[in-house]
């Protein structure tokens, strides 16, 4: 049971309350870490970034106006930090990760499917989506963000959130089809 | 409604399916989607695909693990190194209450004290009566001590159907010998222990499919 709302914690943090900071960190750090990790695909970088995210929360708490959920605000900060880190990363490192993310297609789709259950193939395809598509899928399904909140985090119009989610799901279906699962959609 | 309008309405409803699965639509949109799903079997089939993606995304993210204690140590070392923060310009509630009572004239304050004492006495009487009254038969009581170690067993995530009452949910959990171990999250999801020991994947999948047929269940998926 959550005894203090996130908004109350933020106002206490604005007053320099370290205990409130610990509670907020304990409540959100795993989800923030996973969001960042899915973007940067590097555990050490993700771990460094979450302490930067929460340090920003500590510094900026007094400026939080409550126009969005606290978790939405923190995910916006996390996204900015992750994208900045990706821009700083050498191209060689990115190429290596891209190569690592590409599935070895030495087995044909039937063999691949026979080796794994459908859920495992689905998770594999979710991992193979582009960063833009992974992000929107995670925000909607895992972080349970409404259209409005997702638009605020990503910085795009609400209509674009819906179309981006549609295309992410369409791409997911295509990836599944390549691996032998035809969902009959779109 | 023309067929063109119908197609547009179906498209707009279909675009909302991911948020319906996550439970983040407002009531009006949720009701629109529910009505469309009841009337259109093809849309319902597509919604089942969305639910699969929803469950897989949660499973994938849950498998990512958590950061080490180093992240927290690093954060609080940085916070300690920050310059000492001056007391906030916005004053606390306690200080403002003190100011309020300090500004009242003595006579007003005395009458307010008498009124407060009476109110507290009456309230205490009510609480005393309620506390000493024997509990009604069948009254819900939470189990305070878990009978199984946390993390041990087979688990699903469940969102109960909007129309399911607390009584329905209690009966559902009791009948199946399930325990809620976490939740609800923002989208109304509960983590539920469905067996005291881990189940094979196909067995858990079959159980999940069976539970999905229950009218009290809106969404269910296996989790760890």
Topology record:
The complex is a heterodimer of chains A (186) and B (224).
Chain A: H1 6-14, H2 18-40, H3 43-60, H4 70-88, H5 91-101, H6 109-115, H7 118-128, H8 131-142, H9 147-154, H10 158-178
Helix pairs in contact in A: 1-2, 2-3, 2-4, 3-4, 4-9, 8-10, 9-10
Chain B: H1 3-22, H2 27-39, H3 41-62, H4 69-81, H5 93-102, H6 106-132, E1 154-160, H7 166-176, E2 179-182, E3 190-195, H8 201-212, E4 217-223
Antiparallel strand pairs in B: 1-3, 1-4, 2-3
Helix pairs in contact in B: 1-2, 1-3, 2-3
Question: How would you describe the overall organization of this protein?
Answer:
The complex is a heterodimer of chains A (186) and B (224). In chain A, helix 1 (6-14) packs across helix 2 (18-40). Chain A has helices spanning 6-14, 18-40, 43-60, 70-88, 91-101, 109-115, 118-128, 131-142, 147-154, 158-178. Chain A is 75% helix and 0% strand. Chain A is an all-alpha fold. The longest helix of chain A has 23 residues, at 18-40. The mean pLDDT of chain A is 88. Chain A folds into 2 domains: 6-88, Rna Polymerase Sigma Factor, Chain: A (Orthogonal Bundle), CATH 1.10.1740; 105-178, Winged helix-like DNA-binding domain superfamily/Winged helix DNA-binding domain (Arc Repressor Mutant, subunit A, Orthogonal Bundle), CATH 1.10.10.10. Chain B is α+β, with helices and mostly antiparallel strands. Chain B folds into 3 domains: 3-62, no CATH class; 93-121; 154-223, Peptidase S8 propeptide/proteinase inhibitor I9 (Alpha-Beta Plaits). Helix content of chain B is 57%, strand content 11%. Chain B has helices spanning 3-22, 27-39, 41-62, 69-81, 93-102, 106-132, 166-176, 201-212, and strands spanning 154-160, 179-182, 190-195, 217-223. Chain B has a 4-stranded antiparallel β-sheet. In chain B, strand 2 (179-182) and strand 3 (190-195) form a beta hairpin. Chain B starts with a helix and ends with a strand. The model of chain B is unreliable at 138-146 (pLDDT under 50).
């Amino acid at each position: 049971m959550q005894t203090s709302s996130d908004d109350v914690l933020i106002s206490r943090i604005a007053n320099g309350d370290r205990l409130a900071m610990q509670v907020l960190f304990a409540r959100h750090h795993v989800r923030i870490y996973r969001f960042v990790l899915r973007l940067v695909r590097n555990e050490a970088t993700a771990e460094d970034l979450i302490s930067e995210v929460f340090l920003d929360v500590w510094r900026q708490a007094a400026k939080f106006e409550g126009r969005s959920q606290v978790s939405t605000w923190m995910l916006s900060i996390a996204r900015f930090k992750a994208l900045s880190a990706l821009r700083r990363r050498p191209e060689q490192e990115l190429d290596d990760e891209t190569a690592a993310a590409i599935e070895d297609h030495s087995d044909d789709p039937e063999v691949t499917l026979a080796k794994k259950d459908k859920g495992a193939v689905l998770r594999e395809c979710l991992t193979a989506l582009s960063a833009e598509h992974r992000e929107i899928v995670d925000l909607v399904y895992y972080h349970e963000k409404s259209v409005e909140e997702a638009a605020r985090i990503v910085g795009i119009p609400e209509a674009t959130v819906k179309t981006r989610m549609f295309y992410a799901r369409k791409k997911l279906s295509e990836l599944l089809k390549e691996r032998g699962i035809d969902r009959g959609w779109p | 409604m023309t067929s063109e309008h119908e197609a547009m309405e179906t498209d707009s409803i279909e675009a909302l399916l991911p948020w319906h699965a996550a439970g983040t639509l407002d009531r009006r949109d949720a009701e629109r989607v529910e009505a469309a799903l009841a009337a259109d079997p093809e849309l319902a089939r597509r919604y089942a695909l969305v639910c699969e993606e929803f469950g897989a995304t949660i499973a994938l993210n849950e498998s990512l693990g958590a950061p080490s204690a180093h992240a927290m140590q690093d954060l609080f070392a940085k916070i300690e190194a920050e310059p000492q923060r001056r007391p906030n310009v916005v004053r606390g509630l306690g200080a403002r209450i003190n100011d309020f009572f300090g500004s009242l004239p003595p006579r007003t304050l005395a009458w307010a004290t008498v009124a407060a004492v009476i109110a507290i006495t009456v309230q205490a009487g009510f609480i005393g009566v309620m506390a000493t009254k024997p509990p009604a038969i069948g009254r819900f009581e939470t189990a305070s001590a878990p009978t199984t170690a946390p993390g041990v067993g087979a688990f699903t995530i469940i969102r109960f159907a909007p129309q399911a009452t607390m009584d329905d949910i209690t009966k559902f959990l009791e009948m199946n010998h399930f325990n809620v171990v976490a939740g609800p999250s923002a989208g109304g999801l509960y983590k539920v222990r469905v067996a005291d020991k881990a189940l094979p994947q196909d067995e858990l999948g079959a159980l999940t499919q069976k539970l999905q047929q229950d009218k009290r269940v809106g969404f269910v998926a296996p989790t760890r």
